[in-house]
Amino acid sequence: MQQKYLIFRAVFFIILFTPFSIFGKNIDLSKNVSHSKISILTCDPGNEIYSLFGHSALRIENSKNNLDLVVNWGLFEFSENQFE
């Protein structure tokens, strides 16, 4: 019984942590700068005060590493106290 529990526990942790090891890769873009394209994505403005000027994100494309990454900032939670 103890051996089955240990096997189950080992398989559980392997399944749990496998996605993090697959997607957790380091790519050094400084070596392939000539293959990189950086652009700004901006959405249309909205009616609320926080969206009057739209919303922006930074996009980094690198054809050498087959990378298309969007870095977003300025997100917040309405449930926090400052919006009461």
How does the SSE layout of this entry go?
Layout: H1 2-23, E1 36-43, E2 55-62, E3 67-72
Antiparallel strand pairs: 1-2, 2-3
Described by strand count, sense and barrel closure, the largest sheet is: 3 strands, antiparallel
Query: Count of DSSP helices?
Result: 1
What are the segments in which pLDDT stays under 50 over at least 5 consecutive residues? none
- Averaging pLDDT over every residue, what do you get? 76
β-strand number = 3
Helix content: 25-40%
> Helices and strands, in N-to-C order?
HEEE
Gap between N and C termini = 54 Å
- Globally, the shape reads flat
Structural class: alpha+beta
Please, how many domains?
Answer: 1
Beta-strand proportion: 25-35%
Sheet with the most strands: spatial strand order: 1-2-3
